[in-house]
């Protein structure tokens, strides 16, 4: 355990900027910070060697600047190396620079495509575009010195050996989105390799009561059971669920650091909703699968990582969603685990006729559990003051719209507690009463909803008018209708081709 800092000083640092030289027989990569070393990639046998720079790079070689290597993907022509071409600085977490990936470049290692016929050349070009499409899906993030795959609490609870392991190796594999790309690369050269996460990060410098602090949201999408919305539902045999997202809210003030974690993920049963021409395709629960065994695997992992699980299920208790709600409830009962509590809240029924103020019923109902699970707090002297003992695992059908609304409300309640503990807010003051900050809070959570939704469904989120304004509006309903129709078109008529033919950066 590191008593002074959430993140210890790294003995396995990553270079931040490089010069790339593409030559007829080799590709050379030279760190700007250390020109005594070069990475030499042979374009004939594709081997990679780290060498002392003794002038191997031809003088006439053109050079371009890059910001790191994401790894290698193997297509028909052969391996392509994927490099970071452009990045954007978005702020700091615990003093570490955080970057957003803006643009990549894919450089073929083979010197020629003459070994391919015309059809193969066309297919290689199509696969290349698919990889680029994945990398252009907003947003990927990275840091050269901070492990973005792990929460502050997990980083604190590490061993002394942790600091000697390269970031790419010690990362939480669930959220390391270039895991397979890096495995295709030479793992001995990890100081050249940048681990990336997919999701959402917002870092804001805020002032309340004259006290300056940083408020940050980090959401990490799991690379397991990823895929387009209607093609990836439910659970797999390893206990992975579709659209699993870990969301961490961080507050940094006067050298103290605190965080609060929530999760979301598809209902952990074997169920499908394959697209048809119907607006809402039928949901089908598999009859021959062992739901209990898969759910047990899922929750064993969740408990081992996060502790106690409060399951908030927001789906309907009648109609098409009723069978899923009943089956989920029954499985939780069969698990017989006192670390799991099931909370069902029929979102649409409770909030019908635009009575979204009734969401306070749910927040008040689970307030006691939220207080007991607590949050993570590290004092300015590095002393652990509070540990989070469990999480709310929230779901609806997509784990997008209803889920984000409820997560934002739970996050706001806990943020009030955290800010009062740090003496940023006075006793009795609440986040929702601080008008400027409340406006920022709502805007960030609405942006968060849109980005996570785009990544899974291809459109912005529904119900964000409530998240942004605190009220459900007719304009918001019309916006939801528009996004729903776009989802229908994309998910029913376009995602099938993408799912069948996709060459994702996650391919094994």
From TrEMBL:
Catalytic activity, EC: 3.1.3.64
Entry-linked InterPro entries: SAC_dom (IPR002013)
SAC domain sequence ranges: 131-458
Name of one Pfam family that matches: Syja_N
Superkingdom of origin organism: Eukaryota
Catalytic reactions of this protein: a 1,2-diacyl-sn-glycero-3-phospho-(1D-myo-inositol-3-phosphate) + H2O = a 1,2-diacyl-sn-glycero-3-phospho-(1D-myo-inositol) + phosphate; a 1,2-diacyl-sn-glycero-3-phospho-(1D-myo-inositol 4-phosphate) + H2O = a 1,2-diacyl-sn-glycero-3-phospho-(1D-myo-inositol) + phosphate
Signal peptide range: none
Gene Ontology BP, a term: phosphatidylinositol dephosphorylation
A GO cellular component entry from the record: endoplasmic reticulum
Protein name: Phosphatidylinositol-3-phosphatase SAC1
Lineage start: Eukaryota, Metazoa, Ecdysozoa, Arthropoda, Hexapoda
């Amino acid at each position: 355990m590191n008593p002074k800092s959430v993140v210890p000083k790294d003995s396995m640092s990553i270079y931040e900027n490089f010069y790339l030289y593409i030559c007829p027989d080799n590709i050379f990569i030279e760190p700007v910070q250390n020109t005594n070393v070069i990475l030499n990639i042979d374009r004939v046998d594709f081997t990679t060697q780290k060498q002392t720079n003794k002038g191997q790079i031809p003088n006439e070689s053109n050079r371009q600047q890059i910001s790191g290597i994401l790894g290698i993907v193997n297509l028909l022509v052969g391996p392509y190396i994927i490099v970071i071409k452009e990045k954007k600085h978005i702020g700091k977490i615990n003093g570490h620079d955080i970057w957003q990936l803006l643009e990549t470049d894919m450089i073929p290692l083979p010197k020629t495509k003459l070994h391919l016929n015309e059809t193969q050349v066309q297919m290689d070009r199509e696969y290349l575009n698919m990889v680029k499409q994945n990398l252009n899906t907003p947003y990927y993030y990275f840091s050269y010195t901070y492990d973005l795959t792990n929460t502050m609490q997990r980083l604190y609870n590490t061993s002394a050996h942790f600091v000697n392991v390269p970031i790419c190796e010690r990362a939480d594999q669930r959220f390391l989105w270039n895991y397979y790309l890096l495995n295709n690369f030479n793992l001995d050269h990890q100081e050249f390799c940048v681990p990336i996460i997919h999701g959402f990060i917002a870092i804001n410098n805020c002032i309340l009561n004259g006290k300056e602090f940083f408020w940050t949201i980090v959401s990490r999408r799991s690379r397991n059971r990823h895929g387009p919305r209607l093609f990836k539902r439910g659970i797999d045999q390893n206990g992975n669920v579709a659209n699993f997202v870990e969301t961490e809210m961080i507050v940094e003030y006067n050298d103290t650091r605190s965080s609060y974690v929530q999760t979301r993920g598809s209902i952990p049963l074997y169920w499908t909703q394959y697209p048809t021409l119907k607006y809402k395709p039928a949901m089908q629960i598999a009859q021959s699968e062992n739901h209990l065994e898969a759910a047990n695997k899922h929750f064993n992992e969740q408990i081992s990582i996060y502790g106690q699980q409060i399951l908030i299920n927001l789906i309907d208790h009648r109609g098409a969603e009723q069978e899923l709600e009943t089956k989920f409830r029954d499985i939780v009962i069969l698990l017989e685990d006192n670390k799991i509590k099931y909370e069902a809240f029929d979102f649409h029924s409770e909030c019908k006729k635009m009575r979204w103020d009734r969401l306070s019923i749910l927040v008040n109902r689970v307030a006691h559990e939220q207080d007991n699970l607590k949050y993570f707090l590290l004092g300015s002297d590095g002393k652990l003051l509070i540990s989070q003992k469990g999480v709310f695992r929230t779901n609806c059908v997509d784990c997008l719209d209803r889920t984000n609304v409820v997560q934002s409300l739970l996050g706001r309640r806990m943020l009030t507690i955290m800010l009062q503990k740090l003496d940023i807010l006075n006793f009795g003051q609440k986040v929702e009463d601080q008008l400027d900050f409340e406006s920022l809070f709502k805007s960030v959570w609405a942006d968060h909803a849109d980005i996570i939704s785009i990544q899974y469904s291809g459109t912005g989120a529904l119900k964000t008018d409530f998240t942004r304004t605190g009220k459900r509006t007719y304009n918001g309903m019309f916006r939801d209708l528009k996004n729903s129709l776009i989802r229908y078109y994309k998910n029913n008529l376009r995602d099938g081709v993408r799912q069948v033919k996709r060459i994702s950066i996650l391919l094994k």
